[in-house]
């Protein structure tokens, strides 16, 4: 079995590590590079995985997953580039960082794949979009898809779409949690106990998501099925339109896309 290193084991790095272990990857075939020593100890205890210096991980692994913040990417690449060699695969999960940015900083012939994952990978319901760099073979792309496929669905997209994807599925869970928080808070305002409001909102979310996935019916049709003439839903939706919620989502996602574009420039 090939060796896989994860450099940067924060929220997303641990999500990936735990998913790979759940999917049956042997811990002996995994390695972690993590700067914070306390965090490294925590992961060693939790998973029995070897936490080693970045250069050791990068030298030993066939596939190196880069899961540090975009702002730390240049430093990590400068550290590991001297030990990388052609034939290895780098899989970057960092928002905004292009395959070109990475290819410029590593030896020629190292394959690069850019991925935008999301946190529902923690419950094996992730959505990841992968794009090949310029020296990437079908086998490299398939390996990246297999790694990400162990924690959810994977689609292949042209790299120029990555910033938009980041704004939708990468950041998307945060918008959904924000809506959930808002609905629970509103339920409390309407006089419900917080626990009841929370149960009602979460099951409504799960049920609605399942309907979307299992029926394949367009969301507009599903919304219309809930909206009786002169009924309660119509009154609620009128308020959402008056408060320009649709326009707010468009502006929010444009802002996320623009921020993703800016991250590669180091800002
Ligand atoms: N959290 C999320 O929802 C998503 C995150 N991402 C991407 O994943 C990457 C990581 O994000 P998070 O896990 O949320 O951040 P995080 O801050 O939780 O984790 C980053 C980890 O990298 C470690 N680190 C920093 N410099 C290092 C170095 N030189 N060597 C070894 N380890 C180092 C930090 O100590 C930290 O544990 C980012 O590039 C982000 O754009 C992508 C999609 C979703
Ligand atoms: O907020 C961020 O920059 C990262 C990328 C997508 C989700 N979280």
TrEMBL record:
<dbReference type="InterPro" id="IPR036291">
    <property type="entry name" value="NAD(P)-bd_dom_sf"/>
</dbReference>
<dbReference type="InterPro" id="IPR000304">
    <property type="entry name" value="Pyrroline-COOH_reductase"/>
</dbReference>
<dbReference type="InterPro" id="IPR053790">
    <property type="entry name" value="P5CR-like_CS"/>
</dbReference>
<dbReference type="GO" id="GO:0004735">
    <property type="term" value="F:pyrroline-5-carboxylate reductase activity"/>
</dbReference>
<comment type="pathway">
    <text>Amino-acid biosynthesis; L-proline biosynthesis; L-proline from L-glutamate 5-semialdehyde: step 1/1.</text>
</comment>
<dbReference type="Pfam" id="PF03807">
    <property type="entry name" value="F420_oxidored"/>
</dbReference>
<comment type="function">
    <text>Catalyzes the reduction of 1-pyrroline-5-carboxylate (PCA) to L-proline.</text>
</comment>
<keyword id="KW-0560">Oxidoreductase</keyword>
<feature type="domain" description="Pyrroline-5-carboxylate reductase catalytic N-terminal">
    <location>
        <begin position="5"/>
        <end position="96"/>
    </location>
</feature>
<feature type="domain" description="Pyrroline-5-carboxylate reductase dimerisation">
    <location>
        <begin position="159"/>
        <end position="262"/>
    </location>
</feature>
<protein>
    <recommendedName>
        <fullName>Pyrroline-5-carboxylate reductase</fullName>
        <ecNumber>1.5.1.2</ecNumber>
    </recommendedName>
</protein>
<keyword id="KW-0963">Cytoplasm</keyword>
<dbReference type="InterPro" id="IPR008927">
    <property type="entry name" value="6-PGluconate_DH-like_C_sf"/>
</dbReference>
<keyword id="KW-0521">NADP</keyword>
<comment type="similarity">
    <text>Belongs to the pyrroline-5-carboxylate reductase family.</text>
</comment>
<dbReference type="Pfam" id="PF14748">
    <property type="entry name" value="P5CR_dimer"/>
</dbReference>
<dbReference type="InterPro" id="IPR029036">
    <property type="entry name" value="P5CR_dimer"/>
</dbReference>
<dbReference type="InterPro" id="IPR028939">
    <property type="entry name" value="P5C_Rdtase_cat_N"/>
</dbReference>
<keyword id="KW-0028">Amino-acid biosynthesis</keyword>
<keyword id="KW-0641">Proline biosynthesis</keyword>
């Amino acid at each position: 079995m090939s060796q896989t290193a994860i450099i940067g084991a924060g929220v997303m790095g641990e999500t990936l590590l735990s998913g790979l272990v759940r999917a049956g990857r042997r811990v002996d075939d995994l390695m972690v590079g993590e700067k914070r020593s306390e965090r490294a100890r925590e992961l060693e205890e939790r998973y029995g995985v070897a936490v080693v210096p970045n250069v050791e991980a990068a030298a030993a692994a066939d596939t190196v997953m880069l899961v540090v913040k975009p702002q730390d990417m240049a430093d990590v690449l400068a550290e590991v580039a001297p030990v990388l060699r052609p034939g290895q695969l780098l899989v970057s999960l960092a928002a905004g960082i292009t395959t070109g940015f990475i290819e410029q900083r590593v030896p020629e012939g190292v394959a690069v794949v850019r991925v935008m994952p999301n946190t529902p990978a923690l419950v094996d319901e992730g959505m990841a979009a992968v794009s090949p760099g310029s020296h990437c073979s079908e086998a490299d792309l398939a390996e990246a898809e297999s790694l990400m496929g162990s924690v959810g669905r994977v689609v292949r997209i042209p790299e120029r779409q990555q910033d938009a994807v980041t704004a939708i599925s990468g950041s998307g869970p945060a918008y959904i949690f924000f809506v959930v928080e808002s609905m629970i808070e509103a339920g409390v305002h309407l006089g419900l106990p917080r626990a009841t409001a929370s149960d009602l909102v979460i099951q409504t979310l799960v049920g609605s998501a399942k309907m979307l996935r299992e029926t394949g019916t367009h969301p507009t049709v599903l919304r219309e099925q809930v909206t009786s003439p002169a009924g309660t839903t119509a009154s609620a939706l009128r308020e959402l339109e008056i408060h320009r919620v649709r326009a707010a989502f468009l502006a929010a996602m444009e802002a996320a896309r623009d921020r993703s574009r800016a991250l590669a420039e180091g800002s």
